[in-house]
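Preliminary data (for renewal application), NAP complex.
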Amino acid sequence: MGATGAVGNSFLRILEERKFPIKNFRLLASERSKGKKLKFNGQDYPVEVLTHDSFKDVDIVLASAGASRSLEFLPSAVKAGAVCVDNSSAFRMDEDIPLVVPEVNAKRIRENKGIIANPNCSTIQMVVALWPIHKAAKIKRIVVTTFQSVSGAGQSKINELTEQVKDFVQNKKIVPKELPHQIAFNLIPQIDVFLENGYTKEEMKMVNETRKIMEDPSIQVNATCVRVPVFYAHSESVSIETEKHITPAEVRELLSKAPGVRVVDDPEHKAYPMPIHAEGKDDTFVGRIRQDESVKNGISMWIVADNIRKGAALNAIQIAEELIK
Ligand SMILES: NC(=O)c1ccc[n+]([C@@H]2O[C@H](COP(=O)([O-])OP(=O)(O)OC[C@H]3O[C@@H](n4cnc5c(N)ncnc54)[C@H](OP(=O)(O)O)[C@@H]3O)[C@@H](O)[C@H]2O)c1
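Predicted structure:
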């Protein structure tokens, strides 16, 4: 579901790369994509219009067509006997629905009743890096600022940044289309809508999803989410306070052994994670690991991952791989 989108395209590439065992598959999107064909393993497949009858004989649904489509169509998929891995926010906070990052809580996959939720992209990369530290030193508080690429808002925002950059260099007037302001050569400290408490929905997703995945409602999270003029990969400045003291060297050691994490932390040689290096990669990159000298037990770090891969399609496919094990 959502095969023609930014995440949908990544689904196809990752299924090919990982040689996911597929006998038959369907590509579903909206009326707009009727007649389109998409390549998979060198062959052209037609895109079909998503309907309630799309799920006959389907074992696994990978859904990335937005929350309202998930709410409307996934119950029909479950009724038809499929297990759905949903990239949207529709079911993430439902008590009965597992919210899974395999490196953290793969054990919850088996509890599914037909739907498994994939967390928000910014939350996924943060918990992949923080989970080993939480296990070793118990995290009490997280302060995070995100630098989120335009691909996080879908294919049309990738096009919007491209057009604005072209207009800018040609001295043309920049007219924002779907993003709330100019994004070329600018930063927008708003992702999704504002809530009554002054935070955005995206920021509160980081608070609530982190607590659910790490299964610790006592963790305090303060998030500020910013859209930046980068095409792919989200970056995050993260500061944590832990119950037990832990040193930067111990954090580096823990993370160098953690699944899905790659430590790039050699400031002397100007080596730290950057979006241009994370783009197209599966790992979550961590660097700039240092003691936060402003609190008793504090560590600060910089976390970067490809939001379309680990933040969406790869995480969902890893869940699907666990399902068929
Ligand atoms: N981008 C990310 O980093 C990211 C990360 C995590 C989660 N997600 C979530 O994944 C979902 C998709 O994101 P995206 O970035 O791939 O968005 P996108 O590039 O805008 O793609 C949206 C997809 O949904 C399909 N769609 C839209 N309306 C539909 C309808 N009425 N019926 C059937 N299909 C419909 C579109 O089909 P048409 O081409 O036919 O319009 C397209 O395939 C969203 O829920 C998003 O929150 C995205």
